[in-house]
C-alpha cells in the first residue's frame, strides 16, 4: 500500500498475508495461491492475468510458458450469453494450446432459455444440483469422449451457495474441469459475498442490506454514533467504527469542479487543491486522482480538521495511496488493510 497513509513496513505485510487464506476458509471459501509468487488466472476474454489468490474452481496456471492442459475443450450452455468460448479459444491458441469449442443444454434449463434475462449464472446454478448435476456430468463426459480432450473449461455456473456442487461435479468427470469467470455479476463473486456475509453474521454481526450512513456525532476525538437513512432518528452506537466506503466509483469520495471531499463525515482528504493536478490529459497515463483518499495515521485512524478520530479507522480504497487500476492491487489492499485494522 503506497504513500504516507499506509502499512509502513514489509514485516507487517509479511505477518498479515498468511492470515488471509485461513480467514476465507473459515467462511467456506477455498483459495489457491501462495504469497511467494503470482500465478495466472484465465479471464473471461481469454487472457491470462497475474493473481495472488484465486477461488478453488477457477482456471489457473503457474506459468503461461508451459500450460499443462493438453487438448482443451471449451464448453458453453446453449443460450448462455455471458460467456465467450471463441475468445477463450483464441486466447489459448495464442499461447500454443490446442482448443475446440462445444455446447449443450439440459431439459431443466429450457425454461431459462426462453428469456436471455433469465439465463444468468446465478439462475443456472440454482438448477444444477442433485440429479441434474449427474446429467450435467454425463453430458460433459460425452463431449470429452467425442473430442478426445484432456481438460475441460466451462463458464462458472455451478455452486452458488457453497463449493460442494463443484466438488461433486469434478468427482463425476473423466477429465479435469476448471471454470472461467463470466462477466459480472460473476457466480464466484456472489458466492464469496454470501459466504463472507454469513460468516460475519455467525460471528454476531448485523448486516443492514440497502441502508446508507448519513452522518455521525463526534465527541472530542471519538465518533459516538452514526445515523442511517432507514433507521432515521435511531442512531447506531459503538466503541469502534470502520470506514469501508470505497473511492469515487462507490461514492466514498466525491468531486466538485474545485474540491475532493469525503461525504459522510467531512474527513480530511489527501488531494491537491489545484484541479489540474488531479489528472493527466493523456487518458492512458497514470491518473493522480486514482491515488486520492482520506488522511490516516499509521493505524489507519482517520482525521477531521487535522484532528485524529481515534475510534474511526479506514480500510480499502477509501485510504488511497495506491492505483488499483494500474497496479491491479485493489483486492489485496482491501484485504490486508482490513486485517491490519
Radius of gyration: 23 Å
- Judged by helices, strands and strand pairing, the structural class is alpha/beta
Q: Order of helices and strands, N to C?
A: HHEEEEEEHEHHHEHEHEEEEEEEEEEHH
Summed up, the helix count is: 10
Give, in spatial order, the strands making up the sheet with the most strands.
7-6-8-9
As a percent range, the share of strand residues is 15-25%
Q: What share of residues is helical?
A: 25-40%
Biggest sheet features: 4 strands, parallel
Q: Tell me the span between the first and last alpha carbons.
A: 14 Å
Count the E strands.
19
**Integer average pLDDT:** 93
> What oligomeric arrangement do these chains adopt?
single chain
- Uncertain stretches: 1-7
Shape: elongated
Question: What this model shows, in words?
Answer:
- This protein has 341 residues and is α/β, with parallel strands linked by helices.
- The protein is built from 10 helices and 19 strands.
- It is elongated and about 70 Å long.
Task: Give the SSE layout.
Blueprint: H1 10-16, H2 20-26, E1 31-32, E2 39-42, E3 48-51, E4 54-55, E5 60-61, E6 72-77, H3 85-94, E7 99-104, H4 110-113, H5 121-127, H6 130-147, E8 151-155, H7 164-172, E9 177-180, H8 187-202, E10 213-219, E11 222-228, E12 236-237, E13 241-243, E14 254-256, E15 259-261, E16 269-270, E17 293-294, E18 301-304, E19 307-314, H9 324-327, H10 330-340
Parallel strand pairs: 6-7, 6-8, 8-9, 13-19
Antiparallel strand pairs: 1-4, 2-3, 2-5, 10-11, 11-12, 14-15, 16-17, 18-19
Amino acid at each position: 500500500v503506497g504513500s504516507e497513509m499506509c502499512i509502513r513496513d514489509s514485516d507487517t505485510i509479511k505477518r498479515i498475508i498468511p492470515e488471509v487464506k485461513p480467514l476465507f476458509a473459515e467462511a467456506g471459501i477455498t483459495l489457491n495461491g501462495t504469497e511467494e509468487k503470482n500465478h495466472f488466472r484465465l479471464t473471461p476474454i481469454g487472457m491470462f492475468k497475474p493473481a495472488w489468490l484465486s477461488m478453488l474452481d477457477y482456471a489457473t496456471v503457474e506459468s503461461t510458458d508451459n500450460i499443462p492442459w493438453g487438448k482443451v475443450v471449451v464448453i458453453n450452455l446453449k443460450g448462455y450469453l455471458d460467456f465467450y468460448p471463441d475468445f477463450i479459444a483464441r486466447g489459448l491458441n495464442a499461447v500454443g494450446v490446442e482448443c475446440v469449442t462445444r455446447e449443450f443444454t439440459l431439459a431443466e434449463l429450457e425454461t431459462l432459455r426462453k428469456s436471455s434475462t433469465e439465463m444468468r449464472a446465478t439462475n443456472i446454478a440454482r438448477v444444477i444440483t442433485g440429479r441434474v448435476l449427474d446429467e450435467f456430468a454425463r453430458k460433459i463426459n460425452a463431449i470429452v469422449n467425442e473430442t478426445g480432450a484432456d481438460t475441460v473449461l466451462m463458464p462458472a455456473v455451478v455452486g452458488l451457495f457453497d463449493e460442494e456442487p463443484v466438488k461433486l461435479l469434478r468427482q463425476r468427470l473423466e477429465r479435469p474441469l476448471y471454470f472461467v469467470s463470466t462477466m459480472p455479476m460473476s457466480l464466484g463473486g456472489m458466492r464469496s459475498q454470501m459466504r463472507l456475509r454469513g460468516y460475519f453474521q455467525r460471528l454476531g454481526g448485523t448486516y443492514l442490506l440497502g441502508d446508507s450512513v448519513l452522518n455521525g456525532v463526534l465527541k472530542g476525538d471519538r465518533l459516538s454514533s452514526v445515523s442511517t437513512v432507514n433507521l432515521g432518528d435511531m442512531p447506531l452506537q459503538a466503541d469502534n467504527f470502520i470506514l469501508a466506503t470505497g473511492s469515487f466509483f462507490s461514492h466514498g469520495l466525491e468531486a466538485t469542479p474545485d474540491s475532493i471531499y469525503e461525504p459522510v463525515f467531512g474527513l480530511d482528504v489527501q488531494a491537491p487543491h489545484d484541479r489540474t493536478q488531479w489528472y493527466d490529459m493523456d487518458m492512458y497515463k497514470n491518473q493522480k486522482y486514482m491515488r486520492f483518499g482520506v488522511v490516516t495515521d499509521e493505524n489507519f485512524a482517520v482525521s477531521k480538521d487535522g484532528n485524529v478520530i481515534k475510534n474511526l479507522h479506514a480500510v480499502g480504497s477509501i485510504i488511497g495511496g495506491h492505483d488499483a487500476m494500474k497496479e491491479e492491487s485493489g483486492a489485496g489492499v482491501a484485504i490486508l488493510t482490513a486485517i491490519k485494522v
